[in-house]
Amino acid sequence: MRIGNISRVDDSVVSHTLEDLLTTHPESKNLKKVKIQAAEYRRQSRQFKRNFGHEERRERAHLKLQAKELESWAITLENRMIDEIISSAQAITCTLVGAAHPVLEPYRFRTCVIDEAAQALEPACWIPISKCSRVILAGDPFQLPPTVKSLEASRNGLSHTLIERCLELFPEQIQLLNLQYRMHEAIMGFSNAYFYKGALQAAKGVAGRRLFTLGAAGTDITVFEPVVFIDTAGCDFEEKTGEGNQRKPSRSNPDEAVLIREHLLQLLAHFPGGRYPSIGILSPYRGQVDYLNTLLLDDPDLGPILQAEKGNGGVINTIDGFQGQERDVIYISLVRSNAKNEIGFLSDYRRMNVAMTRARMLLVVVGDSATIGKNKFYESFLDYCATNGRYDTAWAYMK
Q: By mean pLDDT, which of 60-64, 230-234, 250-254 is the weakest?
């Protein structure tokens, strides 16, 4: 059963909400009749009468009493229905704060599972934990951290999650799910070495799965390298700062966006039958996402493909906005290109880990090695691409 604000619940799970389960309960019709009758008595008691004497006063008092008794009965009946629904549910799902919902107040649970615990603020975690005798924290501390807008609060420890504290305090309790079923082993390889000490393995069904296409005759096969870095160094692809649609300035790199369009057009040209791979285009900067949306969705060749609601459509989004999703092909626009070697958001390696592990069969990263190459994380990634993938220059795609 799903507890929470029904207006924020996905349509596919509305049938599991408390509100929907109440409407389909066998006693729901009786409850509705009682409420209607109570409302009618309440309405009658408030009717205006020109001549208002002793009898009218006594009748009004009687109607109010009946309305009050029916309302009390309706509350009792509804509480009993809610108790039946909650008691019969195999699992209760809600947000951390949603665990404080009044209907859950009388209940205690044997086990609480906190999903995405690496993104959860510790104070919020204690709300459901206080209602149970056993807690399981599930999450990846090397991916997206919690959102803390206050720098002071972050510095004082609010960004340090409960799952991270438990990893430090109870290392013997850690259970690593080390078999992944999403991506080619080469796409997994860099993150596996840098974040997980080589402990991850790719399932047999995906370890060697590559993006490929057959030629017109059905005999010529084009196989794409799983990991590609396209280097814009020396191309004068300078980053830009502008307001865009945001209250705070955000960065963009129009030339990188054009390069991605060109690469995408060349990629999709290998799929003349229209059976395109699914595509995701990401950037850590909202300004670049806005520019990519305008450039690609308005393109007569790419727009219909990326806007498709069914089949293999594409998504253009920030890394945070794309979390939890995956595509056959992922493009990442790093944006930063400047003489000072400033990388800004790119220094958040956990977010880059999220971005790099969204692809199933092909990961294409576009960036300026002259700007990011001074950073040890990106220096390692560039070396990885040169050794385990394909390292291209942007000049190869410029017309």
A: 60-64
Q: Which of 332, 115, 344, 137 is nearest to 248 (CA)?
A: 344
> Tokens 């208002």 belong to which residue?
52
Calculate the average pLDDT of the chain.
Answer: 90
Closest CA to 209 of 41, 329, 341, 372: 329
- pLDDT of residue 71 exceeding 80, the answer is yes
Instruction: Work out whether the CA dihedral 272, 333, 348, 371 comes out positive or negative.
Output: positive
DSSP letter (8 states) at residue 156 = I
Q: Please name the residue that has the structure tokens 């047999």.
A: 204
CA separation for the pair 145, 141 (Å, rounded): 7
Contacts of 320 (CB under 8 A, 6+ apart): 144, 351
Q: Is 276 helix (H, G, I), strand (E, B) or coil?
A: coil
CA 369 to chain CA mean position, Å: 29
Distance CA 223, CA 81 (A): 59
> What is the phi/psi pair of residue 42, to 5°?
-65, -40
| Helix, strand, coil % in the chain, rounded to nearest 5 | 45, 15, 35
Go through the chain and tell me how many residues it has: 399
Decide if 261 contacts 291 (C-beta within 8 A): no
CA-closest candidate to residue 276, choices 298, 299, 297, 307: 307
Element (H, E) at 295: helix 286-297
Say which DSSP state 116 is in: T
Phi-psi region at 176: left, alpha or beta (left = phi > 0; alpha = psi -120 to 50): beta
